[in-house]
Design goal:
The structure holds three protein chains of three kinds. Chain A contains 36 helices and 36 strands. By secondary structure, chain A is an alpha/beta fold. Chain A has five domains: 69-121, ADC-like domains (N-terminal domain of TfIIb), CATH 2.20.25; 140-197 and 400-615, Rossmann fold; 202-396, 3-Layer(aba) Sandwich (Dimethylsulfoxide Reductase, domain 2), CATH 3.40.228.10; 624-693 and 708-787, no CATH class; 812-984, Barwin-like endoglucanases (Beta Barrel), CATH 2.40.40.20. In chain A, α5 links the parallel β6 and β7 (193-194). The relative contact order of chain B is 0.22. Chain B has one domain: 2-Layer Sandwich (Alpha-Beta Plaits). In chain B, β4 (72-74) and β5 (80-82) form a beta hairpin. Chain B is built from seven helices and six strands; from the N terminus they run βαββαββαααβαα. Chain B is an alpha+beta fold. In chain B, strands 1-6 form a two-stranded antiparallel ribbon. Chain C has two domains: 2-69, no CATH class; 72-329, Transmembrane di-heme cytochromes, Chain C (Fumarate Reductase Cytochrome B subunit, Up-down Bundle). Chain C is 64% helix and 4% strand. In chain C, the strands form two sheets. A three-stranded antiparallel sheet of chain C has the order 4-3-5. A two-stranded antiparallel ribbon of chain C has the order 1-2. The longest helix of chain C is centred in the N-terminal third of the chain and has 35 residues, at 71-105. Chain C is elongated. Classes of the chains: A alpha/beta, B alpha+beta, C mainly alpha. Chains A and B meet through α1, α2, α9 and α35 of A and α1, α4, α5, β6 and α6 of B.
Chain lengths: 985, 198, 339
């Protein structure tokens, strides 16, 4: 809505007024000086006092006469995917310009995006490889670093097996980097590979994929402009996804939409709500069941939708019936009348969308929370149409992409689950024999009463989640379900302060034989511990210093061009992964399909060639149509895409008819020109225009009822009912196999090993020709089938979400009624949440630690915060770690706003922070942001960072205080509920 | 001739601070100098609103009235600028300004002030347009390039509007009519003697 | 400490004022933040004098929390109005008065003519203090006045750049010379305070108009006559006021709120204007206005006749105390014959 002036008008305006002789007020300084004869000489000769001129230009656009080149990349912070335009002059990034053409951010940024140029000023960046020698940081060369790291890894592998090296990747990788890192883990021979999705939306992915097929945001930020009712639950988009609020607030205004915020904390998002509902942290399921109680009670559910597209809602109805308004209020604190009003709006003023973030996911019941949200959406018929949907706002710039590419303990790239078929699929894509991988994995001996595993079995056992890596370094080797404990951490772009129990993490770091941190900044992983040796820092460039694609939360894939070369001695992920692979001996196999070019210090693969390999294998998720050429065409034609539909008009060259960023699934080959899928599971438009249906991936029948859609199909579908996924056999039965080209048929036959039965089994997801997908879509059908969403996910621990009190619950009375799940083993590790919950009750910790502590984001910082706290433009805005405390609680404790306090955790850990006395939190609740590190229980650890690389702002980490608790489905930590006591320091 | 103004639509402002860092980035504004800032009123209460504030480039600017060395001038676009060559860092303008716009580096004796620095509406200062000299003292000159202040251009929710006063007032008025609420044109009555009536 | 209290009281008040508009507490069932949003007009209407519409800010500069402070414009208006007027009227008025007085009375002569014998009126310490005070005051006055009216008077003559340079040096001079000025003020106070305690003779002196308006009238006075006492106390009180407010202006943190700073600035500028007017009169009488007066601060030796005419009681006291030794022939060691 800005008023752009015509080019040069300002300058002309001023000159014109001077020429016209307009004097007095409007005169400018120079003409004034010219008119006054004494301007020079006389006293002026004494010279002006330059002291305090305020500013020195460091890298401004020095000379406007020399050319300035504009380069487009994507913001490296949250998942909204804002385009960043860098002005580059003589290889220096001299300025940022608004990217007006991007339909996602339309020129705008938040504090982080508007300051990304500072990342390549790099005052505080890690400047060269370093290692610790006798406790002191020492500069080393890249060659030495790679050599020594490789030797140690091989030695540890020899001693303890491949699984003893933990490969922690990053949501900051490009898609190509993430994919390469996952592939690296496969070649190394472990499933101990993970990234930040574990701690942000792993439970979302699990919950959503188990409901309707894929683990991703169903609609887009832009599409929320169509919503009439918007619920935020555990999402503070105003701080975590600020640019998304542009679409949401515009939509709110234009639609006069209801914006309802459920949050224990009155957030900056809540300030713009039309309804704010405060509830107790960790009681999402009762709140949702409470809403649905009113919906069912009043018949506000969408019965047609339920009968056509949903299975099992009647069972959910039974659970919901238990949650009467009184019981809901007892557990959550929310009055029934308020829930009734909100429920009515959500169910009747449609389309409605439900937005959640880590307030919902970071719980021991994270997956169940997500499943409850999904059920609310299903019951009201709010998935698969414009303005509806599960709008899951993901956290990091490429956490969606990194998840998609299987930087995950349980997947291969593109959600091919750990199974022989998946390994064989990727072996074909990678052009490496399946047996090669079998040879890389450990055999696991029988121990702890568990059976032994062959390498081939071990290949298909999910690894240890990133939330538990330190437990796996320290607990008895018998208890770890792999050959040995974790001995080495190879950490690429991942903070060490974003997981609870930091005191334990510190011990874990101390216990490692090898710690490698590859990051633009030395993270908490480099500073928290007391290690003396065998600790390496590798300077990695940011995504602004290399090219590659990244996938925004809405599944749009955007190509970023390199803005400047890697600064100092930093190098990009591709090159570093390549050099490590070479050292470890599998580079030739792993990189054989790529175009290699001469990089800064070594050869490196081009991101384009990596993406082409992804295109050759990413059928299951529709990552096949997004060729580098198409993505680059989208970036060049951003202005062609509609703000709301994200679609370009059909007649536009190169991108005509496409949705912006070819949001996956973008079926078939690039040549097939599928436009991508703006809205998932949308049966209102043909599949070739981005339509779809729920994915039947849980069988065809359950309890004698069909799991295929009934009476719902996308327009132009030649099968006018539900149907299963497409395989060669299905094509044959329909007689559509005749539509395959000879080349396609040949590829399918090859995959089937020229064996009739195996050829029939070749499905849309492993057909490397894309023929099956093409033919299905040409007949108006969805390649993965047309099924029902599952209200009941029978394979999950709680098939219907059940309220379970947090481990550290403030309500022992409710623990008795709603205990957490029994102790068990997941992901190679024991989960003793139940024992701990009992012990918390037995020790009466709710009395000595009466305040419920929750955590979350600030707009200025991101993730572990080392990068943003090193950015002087951001760091100035939040200079101290703090705890938000209610004025009544503060007064009772003699705490003043801005004063120092100790936040004491229930297990004896404590953090010294400043008090922020505010009504944002209710009495009995406190909030701390999770971006701080560098202080540990009152100790300033600034000296632990290599000199000159310490972030400007340091502070205590909230995760010093947070406690035990893990979701049984994904290993997600409990980051949102623990107990604490606060006292004046 | 355009009459340049700022308008912060507080019903859109989410305190994301993009305006603040965009400003820092564009002009390399040093630590401790805040040409623009965001203030949250009624923090944590249902009436909470955040407002981004910088120099409003007032009519009859009080800073100019009190400046002992008369270093302020108003451009043809009604932007209030000043000359750092003339400024003596007396601090009077800070106390005259209703918006807390003038900023001073701490230099010299007794913690006294260096030369005043403030929002230039991205239009530099008395030096020749788009020169190094201008950039060093005042920052970049976007207006001369036909662009508007970067804070408004980069505002995440398009809350902060910049441009001709009449045009941005129309935009704001239209928003209020569309959505049915508006908390006011913050600072307008103080800066321009009038507010935007809807 | 006082300022801190004031400051926190002010903040408290602002908070209370703002809370008055806060929407219902969150415990209420219907919480609609959009509807209950604060309104600028409402906040502005409710502002009390000196208050700001303010809120929370995360940068350390607490003053940045004030969003809109309309009263700052009042200070600007006062500065450009009352303060300027008082200064201009006081100084120009005094100059007009003195010119008038000079035309009416002319230079006040030693009526009996110089005796040629001198008497020690002020010792070196006193003179040093006086001149230190005088010199710094003059520079402070001029540089201060420059801040007020320089842009109208000097700038058009010498141009922007030169005026900027001049004023910048002027500011430095003003900031640094304030300290010797304050030191001198203390010395002067200590040296002369006992002589400046008002007493009965002052009444007579005042009754006779100090003899200023009539020839031949010489009301008796001790070391300082009532007129001089007025100057003394003006300098002490005015100087103290200027010193205190000046230090506050120099260290805004000490001053407290910006409203307090503004108040100090107004006091500083008005007192300075009045002081300047008084000092102009003092300079007049000590130089061109009265024969023999300058010597008191020049050499420290005044003519005996001058002393007898203007400070008869002081001369008597001095002679009684020290005998005739107090009186030295003018010109040095060897006594000169009387007239």
């Amino acid at each position: 809505m800005l008023v752009k002036r015509k080019q040069g008008e300002a300058a002309r305006g001023r000159l014109a007024s001077m020429a016209a002789g307009i004097a007095t007020k409007a005169i400018d300084r120079r003409s004034f000086l010219r008119n006054s004869g004494l301007a020079v000489g006389g006293l002026a000769a004494l010279g002006t006092l330059n002291a305090g001129m305020t500013r020195q230009a460091e890298a401004g656009p020095a000379d406007h006469s020399r050319p300035i080149e504009l380069r487009k990349n994507i913001c490296t912070h949250c998942s909204v995917g804002c385009t960043v335009i860098g002005e580059v002059q003589d290889g220096v990034w001299v300025g940022q310009e608004p990217a007006w053409d991007s339909p996602i951010n339309r020129g705008t940024h938040c504090a982080k995006g508007a300051s990304v140029r500072e990342l390549v000023h790099g005052d505080r960046r890690l400047k060269y490889p370093m290692k610790k020698v006798g406790g002191q940081w020492q500069r080393i060369s890249w060659d030495q670093a790679i050599d020594e790291i490789g030797d140690k890894m091989l030695e540890i592998r020899e001693r303890s097996g491949a699984d003893s090296a933990y490969l922690l990747g990053s949501a900051k990788f490009s898609n190509e980097g993430a994919y390469l890192f996952r592939k690296f883990a496969a070649f190394w021979g472990t499933n101990n590979v993970d990234h930040q999705a574990r701690i942000c939306h792993s439970t979302t992915v699990a919950g959503v994929a188990n409901t309707w097929g894929y683990g991703a945001q169903t609609n887009s930020y832009n599409d929320i402009r169509n919503s009439k009712t918007v619920i935020f639950m555990g999402s503070n988009a105003a701080e975590a996804h600020p640019v998304s609020m542009q679409h949401i607030l515009s939509g709110k205004e234009q639609q006069r939409a209801n914006v309802i915020v459920f949050d224990p904390r009155f957030t900056r998002t809540a300030a713009h709500a039309t309804d704010y509902v405060r509830f107790r942290s960790g009681t999402d399921i009762p709140v949702i069941w409470g809403l649905m109680w009113h919906i069912f009670e009043n018949g506000w559910e969408d019965t047609e939708y339920l009968s056509q597209r949903v299975w099992g809602m009647d069972q959910v109805r039974e659970e919901v019936a238990k949650w009467t308004p009184d019981e809901v209020e007892r557990v959550t604190g929310v009055p029934g009348e308020q829930l009734r009003r909100v429920a009515e709006k959500f169910a009747t003023e449609r389309p409605s969308t439900f937005i959640w973030c880590m307030g919902g996911t970071q719980h021991t019941v994270g997956t169940a929370n997500v499943r409850a949200y999904c059920n609310l959406l299903l019951a009201t018929g709010n998935v698969g149409a414009m303005g509806t949907g599960a709008n899951i706002f993901r956290g990091h710039c490429n956490v969606q992409g990194a998840t998609d590419f299987g930087l995950d303990i349980g997947n291969l790239p593109c959600y091919y689950g750990l199974a022989e078929g998946a390994w064989r699929h990727w072996s074909r894509v990678w052009d490496v024999p399946y047996d090669y991988f079998v040879g890389r994995f450990d055999a696991v001996p029988a121990k702890g009463g568990r059976d032994a595993r062959s390498p081939e079995q071990n290949m298909n056992v999910p690894g240890i989640p990133s939330t538990r890596w330190f437990d796996a370094t320290m607990i008895d080797a018998e208890e770890v379900d792999q050959r040995d404990n974790i001995k080495a951490m190879i950490v690429f772009g991942h903070g060490g302060n974003t997981v609870p129990r930091m005191a334990d993490a510190r011990e874990g770091m101390n216990a490692l034989d090898l710690l490698v941190v590859a990051d633009p900044h030395p993270t908490t992983f480099a500073a928290l511990h007391e290690r003396a040796d065998n600790t390496y820092l590798l300077p990695i460039s940011t995504q602004f210093e290399c090219a590659g694609s990244r996938t925004a939360s809405n599944r749009s894939v955007q190509w970023g061009e390199k803005i400047v070369d890697p600064i100092f001695e930093s190098d990009n992920d591709y090159a570093v992964i390549y050099r490590l692979s070479r050292k470890l001996g599998f580079a030739d196999e792993m990189f054989k399909n790529y175009e290699m070019v001469e990089g800064k210090f070594s050869e490196e693969p081009t991101p384009e060639s990596i993406l082409r390999e992804i295109n050759r294998g990413g059928w299951s998720t529709g990552y096949t149509g997004q060729s580098p050429e198409r993505l680059k065409a989208h970036m060049a034609n951003q202005d062609k895409f509609d703000l709301v539909t994200l679609r370009a008009p059909a007649d536009v060259e190169d991108v005509g008819g496409d949705y912006y960023g070819l949001p996956w699934p973008c079926w078939g080959t690039a040549e097939f020109r599928h436009p991508g899928t703006h809205i998932l599971y949308n049966p209102n438009i043909p599949v070739k225009d981005g339509g779809g249906a729920f994915r039947p991936r849980f069988g065809l029948e359950r309890d004698g009822e069909t799991l295929l859609a009934e009476g719902s199909w996308p327009p132009e579908s030649e099968i006018q009912d539900g149907y299963p996924e497409f395989t060669m056999a299905v094509l044959k039965r329909l007689g559509w196999d005749e539509d395959l080209t000879p080349q396609e048929r040949r590829v399918i036959e090859e995959i089937g090993g020229f064996d009739e039965e195996r050829i029939d089994a070749v499905s849309w997801s492993i057909d490397l020709s894309g023929g099956i997908q093409r033919v299905a879509i040409e007949h108006g059908c969805v390649p993965f089938g047309n099924g029902k969403a599952r209200a009941v996910a029978w394979n999950l621990p709680d098939p219907i979400p059940v309220h379970r009190e947090p481990i550290y619950s403030p309500r022992p009375d409710l623990v008795a009624d709603y205990p957490t799940r029994e102790d068990g083993r997941q992901f190679r590790m024991p989960n003793i949440g139940h024992s701990i919950q009992q012990s918390v009750v037995d020790r009466g910790l709710h009395e000595t630690f009466p305040i419920v502590l929750t955590s979350g984001r600030l707009v200025e910082y991101e993730g572990g915060g080392e990068e943003t706290r090193s950015n002087k433009w951001l760091a100035e805005l939040k200079q101290d770690m703090f705890v938000e405390i209610n004025p009544r609680d503060a007064e009772a404790r003699g705490i003043t706003d801005g004063g120092w306090v100790w936040v004491n955790g229930p297990e004896g850990n404590r953090a010294r922070v400043k008090a922020l006395v505010t009504e944002r939190v209710a009495s009995g609740a406190a909030f701390m942001p999770f971006h701080f590190a560098g202080w540990f229980q009152g100790e300033d650890q600034r000296g632990n960072y290599p000199q000159g690389t310490d972030p400007i702002v340091l502070g205590e980490s909230v995760n010093v205080v947070t406690t035990y608790g893990y979701d049984p489905v994904t290993g997600m930590h409990e980051g949102k509920v623990t107990l604490c006591q606060i006292e004046s320091a | 001739m355009a009459r340049m103004k700022f308008l912060c639509d507080a019903d859109r402002c989410i305190e994301c601070q993009a305006c603040v860092t965009a400003c820092k980035n564009e002009h390399e504004v040093p630590w401790g100098i805040n040409r623009r800032r965001v203030v949250t009123i009624n923090d944590g209460l249902p009436g909470e609103r955040s407002v981004s504030m910088a120099c409003m480039h007032c009519d009859d600017a009080p800073c100019a009235a009190v400046c002992p060395v008369d270093c302020f001038y108003t451009t043809a676009d009604a932007v209030v600028l000043h000359s750092k060559d003339t400024c003596i860092g007396c601090g009077y303008c800070f106390y005259a300004c209703p918006f807390g716009a003038p900023q001073y580096p701490r230099v010299g004796n007794f913690g006294t002030r260096g030369k005043m620095d403030k929002c230039t509406y991205c239009s530099g200062g008395p030096e020749a347009d788009m020169t190094q000299a201008e950039y060093v003292k005042y920052g970049s000159n976007r207006l001369a390039e036909g662009k508007l202040p970067l804070c408004a251009e980069m505002c995440s929710t398009k809350s902060l509007l910049a441009g001709d006063g009449d045009i941005i007032a129309d935009i704001y008025r239209e928003r209020v009519v569309t959505r049915g609420y508006g908390s006011g044109a913050w600072g307008w009555r103080t800066a321009y003697g009038e507010t935007i009536s809807v | 400490m006082v300022h801190k209290l004031l400051k926190s009281a002010a903040t408290l008040f602002a908070v209370v004022a703002l809370f008055a508009f806060a929407a219902p507490p969150l415990a209420a069932q219907q919480v609609n933040p959009t509807e209950s949003s604060v309104q600028e007009e409402q906040l502005m209407r409710a502002l009390q004098s000196g208050e700001a519409v303010s809120g929370r800010i995360t940068i350390p500069d607490a003053r940045a929390g004030d969003l809109i402070k309309p009263d700052n414009k009042n200070w600007a208006a006062t500065h450009g109005g009352t303060v300027k007027t008082v200064n201009v009227v006081a100084i120009l008025g005094m100059l007009v008065l003195l010119v008038g007085f000079y035309m009416y009375r002319g230079k006040i002569r030693i009526e009996s003519g110089p005796s040629g014998r001198t008497i020690q009126r002020f010792n070196a310490v006193e003179r040093f203090a006086h001149w230190l005070l005088a010199a710094t005051f003059i520079i402070l006055a001029l540089t201060g006045l420059n801040l007020l009216i320089g842009r109208a008077v000097i700038l058009p003559i010498i141009g922007e750049s030169a005026f900027g340079t001049l004023s910048a040096w002027g500011k430095i001079a003003h900031n640094y010379l304030a300290w010797p000025f304050m030191a001198a003020l203390v010395i002067v106070f200590v040296a002369w305070v006992l002589h400046n305690i008002p007493n009965k003779t002052d009444i007579e002196w005042i009754k006779q108009g100090g003899g200023l308006f009539k020839k031949g009238v010489h009301p008796p006075a001790k070391k300082f006559n009532a007129g001089q006492k007025v100057i003394f106390w003006s300098v002490i009180i005015g100087g103290a006021a200027l010193s205190f407010t000046g230090v506050m202006l120099l260290f805004p943190e000490l001053a407290g709120t910006s409203a307090q700073w503004q108040l100090y600035q107004v006091i500083h500028a008005i007192v300075a204007g009045i002081m300047t007017a008084i000092i102009i009169a003092h300079i007049y009488i000590g130089s061109v206005g009265m024969e023999g007066a300058f010597d008191a601060m020049g050499s420290g030796q005044v003519d005996e006749n001058w002393a007898k005419e203007h400070h008869a009681l002081w001369v008597e006291e001095k002679q009684a105390r020290e005998g005739s030794a107090a009186i030295k022939p003018a010109g040095g060691a060897s006594p000169q014959p009387a007239e």
